[in-house]
Amino acid sequence: MAERSLVFPADEFRHRVARLQEEMAGQGLDALLLTTAADIFYVTGFLTRFWESPARPWFLIVPATGDPVAVIPSIGAALMARTWIGAIRTWDAPHPGDDGVSLLVDTLCSLLPDQARIGVPMGLETQLRMPLADYERVAAGIAPRRFVDGTGAVQRVREVKSAAEVEAIRTSCAIAGRAFARVPEIAGPGRPLDRVFRDFQAMLLQEGADWVSYLAGGAGPDGYGDVISPASSDPLQGGDVLMLDTGAVRNGYFCDFDRNYTVGPASDAVKRTHAALWEATEDTLAALRPGMLARDAHRLLSEALVRRGAEPGGGRLGHGLGITLTEWPSFTPLDHTPLREGMVLTLEPGALVAPGRMLVHEETIVLRAHGPELLSPRAPLDMPELS
Amino acid sequence: MAERSLVFPADEFRHRVARLQEEMAGQGLDALLLTTAADIFYVTGFLTRFWESPARPWFLIVPATGDPVAVIPSIGAALMARTWIGAIRTWDAPHPGDDGVSLLVDTLCSLLPDQARIGVPMGLETQLRMPLADYERVAAGIAPRRFVDGTGAVQRVREVKSAAEVEAIRTSCAIAGRAFARVPEIAGPGRPLDRVFRDFQAMLLQEGADWVSYLAGGAGPDGYGDVISPASSDPLQGGDVLMLDTGAVRNGYFCDFDRNYTVGPASDAVKRTHAALWEATEDTLAALRPGMLARDAHRLLSEALVRRGAEPGGGRLGHGLGITLTEWPSFTPLDHTPLREGMVLTLEPGALVAPGRMLVHEETIVLRAHGPELLSPRAPLDMPELS
């Protein structure tokens, strides 16, 4: 039986590499060293849940010209060979004495000149997915070649989605949209919240998610206290607002948006706050344009919330997404990242209903030349009532 | 509504910290700096799927004496406050200019003497979950205090599970066991593999999993080509062997084991190989003891496979697990980690049926003084037949 390999045609990946190489040239990088599931999937199409095991590091080298080279544990050779990547070097991992270090050093040294500057993502919203001590051994082993910050080269490319990526995210959003529409089947007064969480994940799978990497939410009278807690076994009660926020994955691409429901009739304060969130989102959908900065999106949402009579919650009010649940930029007053055509973003305004009680509203969009196009099916102005 | 907070009583966590501090004393460490979901959950009970977002770093400091100090994004303050941790310092993340760096530096400097050695897990099977450039800024900021390798201190403690942890893993294993028993409801000839994967995840949720962090598998005549691929949409066919391998999570604890099924009658070669895997597991269940090394488990399984007439596959033949899908040690010829009473481990022998076609068998155990106790319900000697 042929297992599924590439999500997209090889040309999609070749085009990504060409864009990376263009950025690298602009920044004087002779190569990129990538270590995370997202970065390696982005370049190769190598898609597996095996990243859940922290046991083994994986490496992909993108040279300034030519095709990438994979330096990976042998357990991944068969799957990587079904991607478009031809150059695959393997070692038997985990190896306590030398877990890919010498193979990576040899590969970098054979590919790159002595004075090479090798970009490694090491800035905001990045992580290095290999043991730190091994990174330091590799850095010593490749001298006089050296590692430098490659964050910008990767982020400027990944943040602008191709047409195929936008359609993949739209598909994930549609799956979640169908599941959100069915929440009245599984939630209502007396239903324990943890059971709602389980049933909602099962519905996401039924609607076509390959897996459900993220589900959070909350429930309580006049809103919820935080949006990152696991579910309790407490039953939903009349007057509660239930919020579910999911990152469901199809073909390696995430959606990220939430929906709110009222258990029985909503209080006036809840209705007012939800309306303000919904209208602030409308205002921002109408106003956001490429060329603005991430902080402008924060300002648009904050000002609209105040104008609509709501008290903005703290934290960021939206962010990028795609092959991880969240990606840069962040809609905060401090993020100066330019917003560009083709970025996929969330608009995520939050507002306080009462002290310690909030509502959060979220949609997924793609930024077009003329403004946002919704990828998530637009939330209703009036929250659905669960009975 | 009260959200669920601590999985275990606070005394469980206090005991863990005491054990960590004992190891730290033995290694001359003045503190540990922890950054991963697993390490921070282990010490605090802080459980959230929010780690799926790579946007923000999280820090926990375990001093040589006294209680841990959390240095975390403010979005996590409410949830952390419901754990047993009293000292919580927060900043508004993500902050492009200073994403927790100065707060972490200030905290480390105020807690620790100038000559402090601060352990950071940086060895095999570890990752640093913060931007590398920020780590280097923190390292410069805390001088003359310095970071050293803290892998051993963390791993020697985490690898021996408490009674409460063993019961948590047993619960996760029982959930998966019930779902595996129901696979004939969802799999059979003509059923697409990706649909089986979706339905199986939904069954794991129905049986009590909080979420399904890992599902892999394969299907094909005389076995499968690799064990890390996502599912294709190809339908199961008579003569296929179907394997499902899951890491389902309940209360933050994983199971990890697989099951094999035949679609219609199995070939003699498949029957012989599966019997050899099953019997090699029996042999190892009878022989494994604390005081052996990880490589001894590899030897026991390999020798038993050969004795039972099978050709051992490559790679490791088992590993630790608990709060991640896989943990050290690894059952390879190279891993000298001593096996200790209370370790939770998998026995995972694989064997070739034909070139490029393998079967893998897996059980989860806890190592007792007298030998292994099964946590997964033992696989049947004869594979269930799907029709």
Main beta sheet of chain A, described?
Answer: 6 strands, mixed
Would you list the SSEs of chain A in sequence order as H and E?
A: HEHEEHEHEHEHHHEEEEHHEEEEEEEEE
Regarding quaternary structure, how should these chains be classified? homodimer
Overall CATH class of the largest domain in chain A: Alpha Beta
Q: Could you explain the architecture of this structure?
A:
The structure is a homodimer of 387-residue chains. Chain A is α+β, with helices and mostly antiparallel strands and 387 residues long. Chain A has a 6-stranded mixed sheet with strand order 4-3-2-1-5-6. Chain A has 2 domains: 10-157, Creatinase/prolidase N-terminal domain (Creatine Amidinohydrolase, Chain A, domain 1, 3-Layer(aba) Sandwich), CATH 3.40.350; 163-386, Creatine Amidinohydrolase (Alpha-Beta Complex), CATH 3.90.230. Chain A contains 10 helices and 19 strands. Chain A has helices at 10-27, 37-44, 77-81, 101-111, 132-141, 151-158, 163-181, 193-206, 268-287, 294-307, and strands spanning 31-34, 59-63, 69-73, 87-91, 117-120, 146-149, 211-221, 240-250, 253-254, 257-263, 311-312, 318-320, 327-330, 344-347, 350-354, 357-360, 363-368, 371-374, 385-386. In chain A, 33% of the residues lie in helices and 24% in strands. The mean pLDDT of chain A is 96. At the A-B interface, helix 5, helix 8, strand 7 and strand 13 of A face helix 5, helix 8, strand 7 and strand 13 of B.
